Automatic annotation (TrEMBL):
Endoplasmic reticulum is among the record's keywords: yes
Native organism taxonomy: Eukaryota, Metazoa, Chordata, Craniata, Vertebrata
Entry keywords, A to Z: Endoplasmic reticulum, Lipid metabolism, Lipid transport, Membrane, Transmembrane, Transmembrane helix, Transport
Domain of life of the native organism: Eukaryota
Family as reported in the entry's similarity comment: Belongs to the ARV1 family.
Organism from which the protein derives: Acanthisitta chloris
Chain's role: Mediator of sterol homeostasis involved in sterol uptake, trafficking and distribution into membranes.
GO terms under biological process: intracellular sterol transport; regulation of plasma membrane sterol distribution; sphingolipid metabolic process; sterol metabolic process
Topology class, membrane: Multi-pass membrane protein
Membrane-crossing residue ranges in chain numbering: 85-106, 118-141, 174-194
Primary localisation category: endoplasmic reticulum
Name under which the protein is recorded: Protein ARV
Pfam families tied to this protein: Arv1
GO CC annotation, single: endoplasmic reticulum membrane
């Protein structure tokens, strides 16, 4: 009833075409994936994306402390820096999602009355972070433009998040971006807190 159509046209489409349309951030493709498919990979996808992000951060941390001594590399490999980066990435993403939920609950409390609404929105947000998988080719094909690629990946993930919120709650285009902006502010606050604690983020 939210799309005002008699049937979901993507039911007849090949999964590859649906995936391409989702990558192009088409609302109908998101609606089909969220409401008319039984995808249950939200948790696994989230963990995998966080591992990719933690690896990028750990690699940058490793590059900033280059040392050619083999003993030092072995010692470095045994450290818990990767797990620390994973924890920081997890806390940042959690704070980002919490910021989105707070903003949406404040702006449209009638949309998030039931627990099922929160769960559906959380699943949509987790699925819409699939753009972080692009971090893998960014690492494999490392070159001088890697920071620019990482910025583009971040923008793509934010656009996907916006579409997921819009489709899940049937909102206009402005409210999801306001919620994302509030989530980014909260995430930035967590980053600043870590920097005050003198952690490398």
């Amino acid at each position: 009833k939210s799309c005002q159509k008699p049937v979901d046209k993507y039911i007849e489409y090949d999964p590859v075409i649906i995936l391409i349309n989702a990558v192009l951030c088409k609302a109908q493709a998101y609606r089909h994936i969220l409401f008319n498919t039984k995808i249950n990979i939200h948790g696994k996808l989230c963990i995998f994306c966080l591992l990719c992000e933690a690896y990028i951060r750990w690699l940058q941390l490793q590059d900033s402390s280059q040392n050619t001594d083999p003993d030092d590399l072995i010692r470095y490999a045994k450290e818990w820096d990767f797990y620390r980066m994973f924890g920081i990435a997890s806390l940042e993403q959690t704070s980002f999602f919490v910021g989105i939920f707070i903003a949406l609950w404040w702006m449209t409390p009638e949309m998030l009355k039931r627990k099922s609404d929160f769960i559906l929105l959380l699943k949509a947000l987790l699925l819409s972070t699939y753009g972080k998988l692009l971090l893998i080719p960014a690492v494999i094909w490392e070159h001088d433009y890697t920071p620019l690629c990482l910025a583009f990946i971040k923008v793509f993930v934010l656009i996907s998040n916006s579409q997921a919120i819009r489709v899940t709650l049937n909102l206009n285009r402005i409210l999801p971006w306001f919620a994302i902006f509030f989530g980014l502010i909260l995430e930035y606050g967590v980053v600043c807190l870590f920097q005050k604690m003198e952690w490398d983020v």
